[in-house]
Write a structure and sequence with these properties.
The structure is a single chain. This protein has nine helices and seven strands; from the N terminus they run ααβααααβαββββααβ. By secondary structure, the chain is of the alpha+beta class. The protein has a single domain (81-269), classed as Cathepsin B, Chain A. Strands 1, 2, 3, 4, 5, 6 and 7 form a seven-stranded antiparallel sheet that branches.
Length: 270
């Protein structure tokens, strides 16, 4: 009996010692004074890396779209499809038709803006009708640019503006604005090889386009049957632009006097 009793006490002691040893090993594995809950593994990387409050977060600038400059493209060639008939539709150069360049130029632009056909018959009849109207309204045979502008407004119901800035750039700008231009000129200064010698002392024609590649204005020169799309060099045409001066013409106009006429042109539109 004693032997069993002693054996039971030893067994209890040994079992108790193992539990105490295990508890001591767990306690010794943790630093003194450290909360056991602090050893739990973080659940996200945000808990591992904390931003330094002293270092400001970098600013992310929004990406700006590339802005391309707007370029105004000016064409180096322009030519409106303006129909052509000369001031002598049937090649009869009588007194009426020799002086009909102003009437023919105005009829040309009127037919274009009204989108009406231009034939030899319509030009001939138009010249006759307009010449009669001008006579009834006290216009002289030769018209100044200002008088032609009045007729374009009152007879043809078109817009007509007198322009005194007579330069190639100004003419091109007016054409780009979809206007046609009528110019008064010292006819012989134009040096058109198709004019009857020596050429008209005073003349009017229509500018319908330009060509920067060759430096030429494209015209409908009603003073010759070969005047459709006839080209004049920029500076040559500008130099020849001179308005009719009734005062100088009172005793007959000479080449020197016509070249004293002011530089002016008529911009015509619908």
């Amino acid at each position: 009996m004693k032997t069993r009793y002693i054996f039971l006490i030893l067994s209890i002691f040994l079992l108790s010692g193992c539990q105490i040893l295990q508890q001591n090993e767990v306690i010794n594995s943790v630093s003194p004074g450290k909360d056991l809950s602090a050893t739990s593994t973080p659940t996200s990387t945000a808990e591992l890396v904390k931003p330094n409050p002293e270092t400001p977060a970098p600013k992310i600038e929004p990406e700006k779209p590339e802005v391309k400059p707007i370029e105004s493209e000016i064409p180096n060639f322009l030519d409106y499809p303006v129909a052509f008939i000369s001031q002598a539709p049937y090649a009869i150069w009588d007194d009426l038709h020799k002086e009909a360049c102003e009437e023919a130029a105005m009829i040309t632009v009127a037919k274009y803006f009204n989108n009406e056909p231009l034939t030899a018959h319509t030009m001939e009849q138009g010249i006759i009708n307009l010449a009669e109207w001008e006579e009834a309204n006290n216009y002289q045979i030769d018209l100044t640019a200002a008088e032609a502008a009045e007729i374009l407004k009152n007879y043809f119901n078109l817009k007509a503006e007198l322009i005194t800035e007579v330069t190639p750039d100004r003419i091109k700008a007016l054409l780009l604005a979809k206007k046609l231009i009528i110019i008064p000129a010292a006819g012989r200064q134009l040096d058109n090889p198709y004019f009857q010698t020596p050429g008209p002392i005073y003349h009017m024609l229509v500018i319908r386009g330009y060509d920067d590649r060759t430096g030429e204005f494209i015209t409908n020169d009603v003073g010759t049957k070969r005047g459709e799309g006839f080209r004049y060099q920029y500076q040559n045409l500008i130099a020849a632009i001179h308005d009719w001066d009734p005062v100088l013409a009172a005793s007959g106009m000479t080449d020197e006097e016509i070249e004293q006429g002011r530089k002016v042109m008529i911009a015509v539109s619908k």
